[in-house]
């Protein structure tokens, strides 16, 4: 594997972009060279800070709590890989917030995939209990986006 010099200015620019956009990672590629800059998400930061304080058994007990949203009957999952947007435009009013009452078929967010904006509709009516993604966050197929109770 060929080595290459790391451009510190480029890394700083990429890190600044992460802070400005709220993204958790960014990758730059030029020819065979790739630089990926990541920052911990809020969940990772909490886990890292809590790790020295917690013993091994309680840390293992925390895993079911993280899995809880996926098993919730009102969990709304992502039907695709893409970028989730909580509002129709940057800085706009979110489609839904915790505590909002939604109707089945109401748009609750948008996922951009391959430059196509895909409205995500509420599968059922109810009250939005929790929004589990942030605006402009990359999401994976099957990832829980929000909970409707």
Automatic annotation (TrEMBL):
- Pathway annotation from the record: Lipid metabolism; fatty acid biosynthesis
Task: Please give the biological process terms from Gene Ontology that the record holds.
Answer: fatty acid biosynthetic process
Superkingdom field: Bacteria
Query: By its UniProt entry, which CDD domains does this protein fall under?
Result: biotinyl_domain
Q: Does the keyword Lipid biosynthesis apply?
A: yes
**Which residues lie in coiled coils?**
none
Q: Where are the transmembrane segments?
A: none
Q: Where is the Lipoyl-binding domain?
A: 73-149
Q: Output the PROSITE patterns linked to this UniProt entry.
A: BIOTIN, BIOTINYL_LIPOYL
InterPro entries reported for this sequence: AcCoA_biotinCC, Biotin_BS, Biotin_Carboxyl_Carrier/Decarb, Biotin_lipoyl, Single_hybrid_motif
Q: Name one GO cellular component term.
A: acetyl-CoA carboxylase complex
Any one Gene Ontology molecular-function term assigned to this protein's record: acetyl-CoA carboxylase activity
Keywords in UniProt for this one? Biotin, Fatty acid biosynthesis, Fatty acid metabolism, Lipid biosynthesis, Lipid metabolism
Q: Does the keyword Lipid metabolism apply?
A: yes
The cross-references to PANTHER family, in alphabetical order and at most eight, read: OXALOACETATE DECARBOXYLASE ALPHA CHAIN
This molecule's function is given as: This protein is a component of the acetyl coenzyme A carboxylase complex; first, biotin carboxylase catalyzes the carboxylation of the carrier protein and then the transcarboxylase transfers the carboxyl group to form malonyl-CoA.
Q: What is this protein called?
A: Biotin carboxyl carrier protein of acetyl-CoA carboxylase
Source organism of this protein record: Azospirillum lipoferum
Gene field:
accB
């Amino acid at each position: 594997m060929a080595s290459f010099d790391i451009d510190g200015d480029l890394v700083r620019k990429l890190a600044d972009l992460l802070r400005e956009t709220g993204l958790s990672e960014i990758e730059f590629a030029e020819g065979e060279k790739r630089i990926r800059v990541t920052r911990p998400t809020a969940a990772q930061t909490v886990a890292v800070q809590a790790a020295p304080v917690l013993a091994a058994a309680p840390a293992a007990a925390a895993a079911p709590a993280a899995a809880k949203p996926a098993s919730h009957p009102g969990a709304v999952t992502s039907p695709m890989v893409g970028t989730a947007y909580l509002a129709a435009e940057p800085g706009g009013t979110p489609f839904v917030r915790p505590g909002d009452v939604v109707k089945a078929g109401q748009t609750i967010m948008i996922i951009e995939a391959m430059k196509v904006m895909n409205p995500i509709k509420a599968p059922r009516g109810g009250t939005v209990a929790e929004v589990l993604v942030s605006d402009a966050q990359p999401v994976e197929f099957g990832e829980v986006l929000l909970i409707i109770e």
